[in-house]
Amino acid sequence: MFRVRQYKGHKINRRVPAALFAIALLALPVVAMARTALIATPLGNIEIELLEADAPKTVANFLNYVESGRYANTFIHRNIPGFVIQGGGFTFTGGNTAPGVVRFPAVENEFKISNTRGTVAMAKLDNQPDSATNEWFINLADNSANLDTQNGGFTVFARVIGNGMAVADAISQLKTIQTNTTFTDLPVINYTEGNFLTVANLAMTAITVDAVTPPPDGFVMNAGLNDAWYNPNTDGQGFFITVYPNIGMVSLAWFTYDTALPAPGATANLGSPGHRWLTALGTIQGDTAVLNIDVASGGLFDTSTVIDHQPDGTITLSFADCSAGLVEYNIPSINQQGNVPIQRVANDNVVVCEALSGQ
Q1: Where are the domains of the chain?
Q2: 140 with 81: CB under 8 angstroms?
Q3: What is the mean pLDDT of each run of 10 residues along the chain (359 residues)?
Q4: What CA–CA distances, in Å, run from 197 to 4, 20, 25, 92, 288?
Q5: Does the reported pTM lie above 0.70?
Q6: 223-351 sits in which CATH class?
């Protein structure tokens, strides 16, 4: 058995199994997307974002195990509450053996990202920084003080997203048992001491990876577009645009204002006289996004008032480059359709946008 030392008594182990490891069926005394992947478990799904830009070789190694089927019928074989849960090491389909996962050659260490809570990293052999193969673990706590400073640092290649950590925490709260020297902290589900272990007693894992989406051709919306925009040919209206690349979304606020107070009894086609604004949110597809409009009206500055808002139509937002865009709108409630060419109010973010778009 090989171990990796960790401070404060904790260790990350990658055990080198013989051809088959026996699970003691008569249990001995009980002791205790970037791309995304989905780790399905009996307690729920754990979705992870693969950090290909930071650990390309390690991500490729992980994908090799998934796509080759070598992670089929694996299970969480180690649970240290407040530290890590660990999987990818062994398979089990019933019977009296738990074969070790057949390993590909070890991958070069790519430590870069700190082992904080919710990160996913590779286990490796003691004093061998480039020995990671098949076993991975999820950090249940901030383990950076331990795992970033030993054995070359443990390579983080993914991070848990969504509500995945709630599932990881639930697994960490399972009862653990020791069956032999291989499985000393094995989490079990509805297990009674002395019974045979079955698939239903283990935190089995089924890992799938999302399909690769080829990058779109041409300009792609990025966070360098975050700015105030306007049409210089019209007075009294503008747009605040915010791009969220990590989730592929963009939000827009379209507002109008009056240079003079409206006449008493004035009416407006959209909203209230003197105060008209709407917001919209949609999904990015390359240089374009289709946003759903929410129209709001009312409100007095620094005064408690009720603001009315209703869904109403769509906006198609598109950009030719980092300096010019187009807002195409369709607002059914007032039967208004048209388009507004826009440019930045200031050019402060142009250089950021061009750097992010590779221009």
Answers
A1: 3-209, 223-351
A2: yes
A3: 33 47 32 73 94 94 96 97 97 90 96 95 95 97 94 96 92 94 93 90 94 68 91 80 88 75 68 66 87 72 67 86 90 83 89 82
A4: 28, 16, 6, 10, 54
A5: no
A6: mainly beta
